[in-house]
Amino acid sequence: MTEKQALHEVFYCSMLTPDLPPATVGSIVTQARARNAQYGITGLLVFDGMRFCQHLEGPHGAVETLMRRIEQDPRHTDIKVFRRGPLAARRYSGFGMGLAESEGPDLMAGIRALDGEAALAHFLALRPSFDING
Predict the structure, then answer these.
(1) Could you report the per-residue pLDDT of 67-110, keeping only the tens digit for each?
(2) Domains parsed from the chain with CATH numbers
(3) Using CB atoms within 10 A as the burial measure, which of 2, 28, 39, 101 is most buried?
(4) Distance from C-alpha of 27 to C-alpha of 25, rounded to nearest angstrom
(5) CA 88 to chain centre
(6) For residue 39, what pLDDT is reported?
(7) What is the pTM of this model?
């Protein structure tokens, strides 16, 4: 990706399909890291054992293609997109796709209770408390 390409971001939360083991997330992240690096996508996925909250950034077409794949992925249910739009500068330049596990469901449930920009702002404010594996 050249720096002249416009950056795009998507922030969403979803639920892990019932009856799938939480270990499913490890295989999702392993596959996603290689693919996302190839397309210039960076971001952070936080998982609390039931809920995903993910913030993606990168070239517009690549991020939207990824979102369509996520929306069709049977491992995700109840997808709620909070923010989708242009981004001035990357927030996750230090690593490709970070993974953090949240302590209990309360943090992610709190984000889902918010709307749009408020949900993204709350997620970003929590970021320093996450133990991120890049």
Answers:
(1) 999 999 999 999 999 999 999 999 987 667 787 877 665 677 78
(2) 7-129 (3.30.70.100)
(3) 28
(4) 5
(5) 18
(6) 92
(7) 0.86
